[in-house]
Specification:
The complex is a heterodimer of chains A (192) and B (647). Chain A is an alpha/beta fold and 192 residues long. Chain B folds into four domains: 236 residues, Rossmann fold, CATH 3.40.50.970; 132 residues, Rossmann fold (3-Layer(aba) Sandwich); 185 residues, Thiamin diphosphate (ThDP)-binding fold, Pyr/PP domains (Rossmann fold); 54 residues, Alpha-Beta Plaits, CATH 3.30.70. In chain B, helix 15 crosses helix 19 and helix 16 packs parallel to helix 17. The chains are: A alpha/beta (192), B alpha/beta (647).
């Protein structure tokens, strides 16, 4: 499939596994012959701090960072973090917002209410998807670390990638129990 | 893992490489013999990858050196002796390594294979740095060639080019990257790995021996007027300095000059604005190709210069335009006004395509299809979250004990207490709930900073430094303190590793727990410290004390702090408590849970101690089993005995 450029913004908290998610997706896209670019945040890993990474693919790509207002998809691995990246949503409200309902509260700071959150989200997109990633991860794998994989399974419906390519990419990076759990979570995400 | 990823693969194959991985591959394709480094974000992955693969690929030597100066010297003399050597560091590392580089830059090794590349990774926006420093002005001081790639593919190609230039000119060559290049990942087409051409016999004659002043001046003359002159010719003719969209003339008589990652931003911005302009992309950033630049400037009435941080290129473009009497308006950051008014971009912070596009609309009056200013005005209130120490981090435990000890010292003596921080994860203790930071400069500075206050006041000065940083550059300051009888309390937070950049080993690390450890000899920190003659105390977590670890640590800090105030002695306390991330790679954490019947939600664990694995539910605290890393300190601090090990 010829694609000029497709931009995914991934946001979440340091330590949530953003880079691993980009790696799985990126490897799969390259296998399919796409030109891919990511930008990652390493280092003082900002555990608990807010982290935003980008993955872009297509024939007409220049920078690892996109223009604001141009993302095709925004993934928030923690619910409230979506609020920090809405500048990337397209003004025509076509951006897919993929939001994990996983919440990480901070002591002494009020967590945004669902009502307020929805109001803001509706201002920015007509394509809002809430994913109960935590519930899926706990129910089917007993391990919260598979939350991202469930989301990965869900977003495949929007991407030019089939399940086997992603599974292949995961086999490169996981083995044993971790692989089994992630394949299970992927499947649940796909079937949502 | 790294071997398969980086080393395997045939010429023409496509890989998904991080910029830093592409640099490793480029060096291997240049027949690299030696890599030395000190870890520092965003440069660390280069050293880590070399460390993993160097024996299998047959390189002569790779080391994670004690600091950047030593790394520069080890690589430098390997270069003199005929090796294809490379040394890697982050921006501020070059400050540390700059002293030997002055002499090294001028020397002229006699061995044919001698080549030296210096990787310097800058960090605009200081994502992971103490300062936002642009290393490029060093190029003018050292007078050495430098290349700057704009994507991972160029990381590979420019590394090869850097080795080639160095081998030919016998000058070290700097390869400058920034975070968004070192940590960008993209398709990279690989070439062929080259075997080393290093010889066993070599010539270490006087061309590298600059002890004599007059001889050095002669060598310097050759450096500037011969070797650098040839570098300039290379730059003039190099395909790394190229003009793109040459025929894309526009109504504004505007041309673009840029380099590195900024090139990708302007391309993105031009596409977005559906606007075309010729671009002079400078990959060979020192010396700048004056003739090529003049020929480019002549075609335009306006030039927009885009570069990260300082005006290294813009200042030179202005000078070149003046020297050649060219009447062309240069837009950019204006190096002379120090005013935000007339500048298109700022010298502070990282650029991105949006900032560049907005600047371009101001220069041209182009109207974008999407109103960028309107989007920029969107301000939603996400949760304020500071980066925090990991759950289970030993520094939090130290911070908690220190806070209690210091409060008691203050109330018992009426003296003020000042904290001097260093570079490491423990810098985060500067944030609430601990807020220990008065001054922090750079690697290794805490111990000397404490002395400046202690020698001039009767208050208590406490230096907080990690073991890695102590080995890096804290040692001379400690010796200075002992010698000058400085009344300070030094806390060495010995977590065993260079924690912040990813738990790399340092000379004190336990050799059993890292791959290359079997060929290293660990330095015993305690023995070393005893040799200085300072008062030394060592406390270890998980030693099975009668009393609680926290209580013991608090008492120790209190007692020694008091002695510093009362008797003006210098005390060092070594707090041995391993980086929990490293511990957990060897053993599964013993997760704690809360007995909700005993918990009264007092908040000590989640509010005063602020473990990120703990938060408050309606009427009791809750430990997230996916976040708990099992340090067990919460069990000690809970006044209700409500926290227990998982059964």
């Amino acid at each position: 499939m010829n694609i000029d450029s497709y931009t995914i913004v991934v946001t979440g908290l340091g330590g949530q596994g953003l880079i691993r998610l980009l790696e799985i997706l990126g490897n799969a896209l390259i296998t399919e012959g796409y030109k891919v670019m990511t930008s990652e945040t390493h280092g003082l890993s900002q555990r608990g701090g807010k982290v935003t990474c980008f993955l872009r693919f297509g024939d007409r790509l220049h920078a690892p960072i996109p223009m604001i207002g141009s993302a095709d998809m925004i993934i928030a691995l923690e619910e409230s973090t979506i609020l920090d990246v809405l500048k990337h949503a397209k003004p025509d409200k076509s951006t897919n917002l993929i939001i994990s309902t996983y919440e990480k509260h901070e002591i002494g700071i009020e967590y945004p209410s669902l009502k307020d959150l929805l109001e803001i989200l509706y201002e920015n997109s007509d394509n809002i998807h809430f994913i109960p990633a935590k519930e899926i991860a706990v129910k089917y794998t007993g391990n919260l670390k598979t939350m991202n994989t469930a989301i990965l399974g869900y977003i495949l419906r929007f991407l030019p990638l089939n399940r086997s390519i992603i599974e292949e990419s995961m086999i490169q990076l996981f083995s044993g129990d971790a692989l089994e759990m992630n394949l299970t979570a992927l499947n649940e995400g796909i079937n949502l | 893992m790294s071997y398969n990823k980086i080393v395997k693969g045939r010429k023409g194959e496509e890989k998904f490489f991080l910029g830093n991985e592409a640099i490793v591959r480029g060096a291997l394709e240049s027949g690299i013999d030696v890599y030395t480094y000190y870890p520092g974000t965003p440069s660390s992955e280069v050293g880590e990858t070399f460390m993993e693969i160097y024996k299998e690929v047959g390189m002569k030597w790779v080391e994670s050196s004690i600091n950047e100066k030593v790394a520069m010297e080890v690589a430098g003399s390997a270069y003199a002796r005929g090796a294809a050597a490379m040394v890697g560091m982050k921006n501020v590392g070059l400050n540390v390594a700059s002293d030997p580089l002055f002499a090294l830059a001028t020397t002229c090794p006699k061995n044919k294979n001698s080549a030296m590349v210096i990787l310097v990774a800058d960090d605009p926006q200081q994502h992971s740095s103490a300062v936002e420093m642009d290393s490029r002005y060093f190029l003018k001081i050292f007078k050495i060639p430098a290349l700057e790639p704009s994507n991972p593919q160029e990381c590979l190609e420019f590394t090869k080019e850097a080795f080639k230039i160095s081998r030919e000119l016998k000058l070290p060559v700097i390869l400058r990257t920034v975070t968004m290049i070192s940590h960008a990942r993209s398709n990279v087409v690989i070439g062929e790995i080259k075997t080393s051409e290093i010889k066993d016999n070599f010539d270490l004659s006087k061309e590298i021996n600059v002890a004599l002043r007059l001889y050095f001046l002669k060598l310097k003359e050759d450096h500037i007027y011969n070797r650098l002159n040839r570098a300039l010719e290379m730059s003039e003719n190099s395909s790394l300095n190229k003009i793109e969209n040459e025929n894309a003339k526009n109504d504004f008589d505007l041309g673009i000059i840029t380099s590195g990652v900024s090139y990708s931003y302007i391309c993105e911005a031009l596409d977005f604005l559906e606007f075309k302009a010729p671009i002079l992309k400078i990959g060979f950033i020192n010396p700048l190709p004056e003739r090529k630049i003049v020929a480019f400037l002549r075609q335009f009435k306006q030039i927009f210069v885009i570069e990260e941080n300082d005006t290294y290129i813009e200042t030179q473009i202005l000078a070149i335009a003046q020297k050649n009497k060219l009447n062309v308006k240069i837009h950019g950051k204006d190096p002379f006004s120090y005013s935000k008014e007339n500048t298109m971009l700022l010298m502070v912070g990282e650029l991105n395509p949006t900032k560049v596009a907005l600047a371009l609309t101001r220069i041209t009056n182009l109207k974008p299809i999407i109103d960028l200013n309107l989007i920029n005005k969107k301000k939603y209130k996400g949760l304020a979250r500071n980066p925090i120490l990991c759950a289970g981090c030993p520094h939090r435990t130290t911070g908690y004990a220190l806070q209690k000890a210091v409060n008691k010292i203050k109330s018992d003596t009426g003296k003020e207490v000042y904290f001097f921080q260093d570079i490491g994860c423990y810098t985060l203790l500067a944030l609430p709930p601990f807020s220990f930071a008065n001054v922090k400069y750079c690697m290794g500075s805490s111990i000397a900073l404490a002395q400046g206050v202690a020698q001039t006041s009767g208050s208590l000065s406490i230096a907080i430094i990690g073991d890695g940083t102590f080995f890096h550059s804290g040692i001379p300051a400690l010796l200075n303190g002992v010698y000058n009888k400085a009344p300070i309390l030094v806390l060495i937070l010995d977590n065993g590793w260079i924690g912040m950049t990813g738990q790399q080993p340092h000379p004190g690390s336990d050799t059993r727990y890292y791959k290359e450890g079997s060929s290293k000899k660990a330095i015993n920190l305690e023995d070393f410290l005893h040799g200085t003659g300072a008062y030394i105390n060592v406390i270890k977590h998980n030693e099975g004390y009668d009393e609680k670890y926290l209580t013991k640590l608090r008492k120790l800090i209190y007692e020694k702090g008091l002695d510093v105030i009362e008797n003006r002695n210098l005390h060092v306390i070594v707090i041995k408590d391993e980086c929990i991330q490293k511990t957990n790679k060897r053993q599964a954490p013993v997760i704690r849970y809360i007995n909700t019947h005993l918990c009264d939600n007092c908040g000590i664990c989640f509010s005063k101690f602020q473990c990120p694995a703990i938060d408050s539910r309606e009427d009791y605290a809750y430990i997230d089993p996916n976040l708990c890393l099992g340090c067990g300190i919460c069990e000690e601090i809970c006044p209700n005995n409500a926290i227990k090990m998982e059964e």
